[in-house]
Amino acid sequence: MDDVRTEVRAWLADNWDPDLTVGEWWERLGDSGWAVPMWPEEWHGKGLSRDDANGVRAEIAASGALGPPGGLGVLLAGPTIVAHGTEEQKRRYLRPIVTGQEAWCQLFSEPEAGSDLAGLRCRAVKDGDEFVVDGQKTWTSGGQIADLGMLMARTDPTVPKHRGISYFAIDIHQPGIEVRPLREMTGRSLFNEVFLTGARVHEDALIGGLGNGWAVGNTTLMFERAGLGAGGGGAGSAAQPGTVMGHLPKRAGDFVGGGDSAFGEGLSGASAPALIALARSRGLTDDPVLRQELVRLHTMVEIARYSNLRLKAARAAGQDIGGLPNISKLAMSNMIRLVRDLGPRILGPGGMLTGRDAPARGRIAETTLFAPAVSIYGGSDQVQRNIIGERVLGLPSEPRTDKTLPFDQLATSRHAKD
Fold this sequence. Notes:
This protein has three domains: about 1-100, Butyryl-Coa Dehydrogenase, subunit A, domain 1, CATH 1.10.540; about 105-225, Butyryl-CoA Dehydrogenase, subunit A, domain 2, CATH 2.40.110.10; about 265-380, no CATH class. Helices cover about 40% and strands about 10% of the residues. The chain has helices at about 1-15, 20-30, 50-65, 70-85, 85-100, 215-230, 270-280, 290-315, 325-345, 365-375, 380-390, 415, and strands at about 105, 125, 130-140, 150-155, 165-170, 175-180, 190-200.
């Protein structure tokens, strides 16, 4: 860890220049391998562990440099393409992700296929060397700023539902794709619904092979749960990747310590250290019940950190820890629920106020309003428990026929309405 930190510190001293544009800086950072240090060296990374990668991010932040591109390209699309893409697809998609040239969104969930993602109805029909896509997606994070989407669509309804799905990289900027932002009770619009009507995607954008979309999609979900889960770290900066927001030609130094991004400050302002500091500033650390709850939150954070260290040691020995991404995702839900309860308790009525002039810059109120989403996105808490029970603990699943019957023969609410 110390050697990695020393190396990245020296590199930043030689290369960070606030007068570069965001695009120029991200190209320099991406080509160095420090933007995505956990990725393989042959694909723009350093092959580092999560713990070492967190150290890299800390050094970048401490240096006053702009952080690497964030978003679902780095978190999900890139790692999935590394795992399942062809060499040509890796060359096409990975570098624009690492350098922030293209932003991605995730076209998975549908109005009738959320927790039961394999029940999706968006269809992709072969037409020459292209597929024609029709359907609706919802809860699409960042869809309004995306250039490309990770699309799961049904390519064969005559086989059981898990086997008839394919995974595509689809161009969002085309006729036939309409993105409608969904305004949340936080006042923001992180999520969207997306309508695809006669949209087209070339067969060379098929990731993982025809009909193998469920396996590829599960890889994406694994990275999502690991990244969003407790101790998952998470890269990002105030500048947004891609062509829509228009940040790439702007001065990089103007985004350092940039506060609010277009999509919120997330939950960082209501982390365990922030809440402990807030309680101290208000003279509340002598309250024995509040102290107990703050220690409980700190303990949960430390357990998450130790879990990542266990995983690092296991992988160094050629092993793995089954179900850890799901356990981490559940832990994050529990932590955010505790944060939701503690923040308003510390601030009192001021915890209901939003905006920069509110106590804690309104982050407590926003976290309270946003907290329910954490137990839903990336697979609900109930889905995580089912996965852990069936795939890790070996418990029997509920009786079901949808794994064996062809999808077009399944009884659904839509069939009942018809």
